[in-house]
């Protein structure tokens, strides 16, 4: 049976470090401040926002909210972002996506200053991930994968890691971050000939395809660590499930993250650590 790698202790450890850093900054007269920018009222955005507000309150990060109706114009949104860029009291921004179809999302995202981009939505932030330079911040979920692995002492150096998924939100950035940890990384996607074979060869699997239960017993072997990033609603089971068929995989592998309660539980903690890091740079 697998060791279950829950996200709660990882988040608690990050929160403790973040809260200590907040107290230190407040002693210097700096209050770390996050701006949440939301267009419309998508249920998943509202759910994440509630979690972020709760986490911010717990660690002492101040939050301001910029809320816009679904029909906001692109120019109004860009004007607000430019004001945020110029506001020295705001250290970081979380902007929910996708934006409504009438808005050019790429243009809007790249209006944000990368040093205030807390979730890797600007081109410069992603360039920083790929070039291993500090330009903005990586996506919080990708960072949460690394935080979870490090918390549980999973040595990535020289290990074969298979990432399933190549999205800019998780797959591609987490692959680059794993390479930075000296892992040997294979990225699988919809055109991969035999994803199961690639997974069976791996020491670590990061499932981030957004496909419920695609990783079954035939994808895994004894001794592996499986990190499930997927969050999917299963009509059949009537609950949230991951990309990994938990009941099939858990008896086979050595370690496995649950869904919910795994990587997702770490994400808002990573977000707050990014805000505090940005505020620390401001305080120098």
Key traits:
single chain, 284 residues, alpha/beta, Rossmann fold, 2 domains, six-stranded parallel beta sheet, three-stranded parallel beta sheet, 10 helices, 41% helix
Structure description:
The longest helix has 20 residues, at 8-27. This protein is an alpha/beta fold and 284 residues long. The strands form three sheets. The chain has a six-stranded parallel β-sheet with strand order 1-11-8-7-5-6, with helices on both faces. Strands 3-2-4 form a three-stranded parallel β-sheet, sandwiched between helices. Strands 9-10 form a two-stranded antiparallel sheet. The chain is built from ten helices and eleven strands. It has helices at 8-27, 43-59, 74-86, 105-109, 123-131, 140-151, 171-180, 195-201, 246-249, 264-283, and strands at 3-4, 33-39, 62-68, 92-95, 160-164, 184-188, 204-207, 225-228, 232-234, 239-241, 255-256. Helix 1 packs parallel to helix 10, helix 2 (43-59) packs across helix 10 (264-283) and helix 6 crosses helix 7 (171-180). The N and C termini lie far apart (48 Å).
